Amino acid sequence: MTELSLYLFGPPRLERQGQAVRVNRRKALALAAYLALAEQPPSRDFLAALLWPDLAQDRARAALRSTLPALTALAGADARADWLEADRDTLAVRRAAIWVDALEFRSLLAQSRRHPHGAEAACADCLPLVDGALELYRGDFMSGFSLSDSAEYDDWELLQREWFSRELAGFLRRAAEFCGQAGMLARAIGYARRWLALDPLHEPAQRQLMRLYAANGQRADALRQYQQSAAALDSELATPPEDETTALYEAIQAGTFAPAPAVAQPALERATASVLPVLPSLMVGRAAALDELKRRAGLGGGAARPVTVVQGWPGVGKSTSVAALAHDPQVARHFPDGVLWASLGETPSLLGQLTMWAEALRLTEPGRTRPIEELTSQIAAALRDRRVLLIVDDVWQVEHAAPFRVGGQACAMVMTSRLTEVAQALAPTAGDVYRLPVLSEADAMELLGKLAPNAVADYPEQALELARDLEGLPLALQVAGRLLHAEARLGWGVADLLAELRTGARLLEAQPPGEIAAVSRDTSPTVAALLKRSTDLLDATTQQRFALLGLFAPKPATFNLAAMAVAWDVPDPRPTARILVSRGLLEPISGGRFQAHALLMLHARSLLAGLEPGEP
Fold first, then answer.
1. Model confidence over 277-305: pLDDT tens digits?
2. CATH number of the domain at 287-435, please?
3. Is 289 helix (H, G, I), strand (E, B) or coil?
């Protein structure tokens, strides 16, 4: 048995002969974790740049050298020679000399996958492996640990954290399903509860637990589980449970629920490989858009478009729509080999996102660092004969999407971008760009009604005016609905708030829903901050001219070239108009006129208020 143990689940720590070892240097612990999971010895230059990105190469290498004595000393005098392997170019950990809980976890997963059943099934021999994984997983990977000066290291850490959490969730789901079908209901309930604990708002886990409670004769527990879930969804997301969850609750409550008979899961010839986004908590009025995206991907018997690029206003719901597409049952049947999803943003971790795809395809062990070009080639080879839907969300630069164009002839690809020029460059033809529309007035009212039912019922006319003022933009409607719901829960009248929301200032200051805020790196983003991501791309002069558009009436905000020339005091406004159109901030309409969404005009007004006196 090794004397040195590295624990990476929960707050990271080292033990020697069962006793905690104090680590004085944070970078030493970060280096130990990275080396422990690296499949191949990383170079010193790579490690120096990873841990000290702000230093010049020679200084970063010097910092790495000064950290090594602290690292080797952790094992004690008798074990130093066995702990690290170092040469002039690379560093590595001798895995025989150290026990690592994360490596043991991966070993248990690998043993389960060698069993003669499909990757989405479990068996009796898997259960001890699941129990062992639960014993190891005492918290999220390296919880509470980060390096404030290395975003790339934090990205690697986040990648590992998400991978281990996702793998444990799948392990628990498969174990719960097997035990439920085998009649081991108490044990199945235990696994389902642990699965739900990883994400208390995950409704598939909620439904599994409710079914198991009901099948085990624990009707009151099943009903209580639904009530707790509904309360949590209302508190955290201000959304009701999914229709499927509510239907299950009603069936259990009415006594009509019948547990499904045990059905043995067939072995799969090839494992489904998927990287999925979070399922949207609430989506209204997007059935037609989803049908169109599915048609473009080849569902329904029509000719498939190899690439579709979804473009639209900031906040129109591009990310939400493709997330729903990724979870669609018809998509799962049409693409039996899985869905691979990635979200890029302004400063993406391309290597991290590609590594997630490679791991889903079982091409590499997590933690191994490979060049982007090598990963792209391997993924493309693996997908050559597979039918997979590829989704790349929130593309800001054309070159960022290039490594993800890896699908074979049977694959389809959907990308999203708020930038018109990027969408046009990504699309093979003009017909491959799908402009996602805003919601209809009826759908906007339905969305407000789901988020703030009491406010809409008590003030229907004001709510309708608010929906019209917000011009069907889902982001604005979601924020407004949640604000109204929160105010109504306090027992206060919402008439004043409805009036404030119509002016827009309260909207810009509010925080967006969690799944929308997740695309921002800010810890507490506001709606204004999310919109500012688009206008920050503009040079100072163009940004000032966009702000001056806030002088126009926002409902509706339409103007021609002559009006823009007067507002900007320029003889030819067309160069600036082209830039604003290419950045998705203006949209040309008929008759030589342009339009901007009301929420963007409110943002323009806020920028205008911030201009220094005397600025154009």
1. 877 877 899 999 999 999 999 997 667 88
2. 3.40.50.300
3. helix
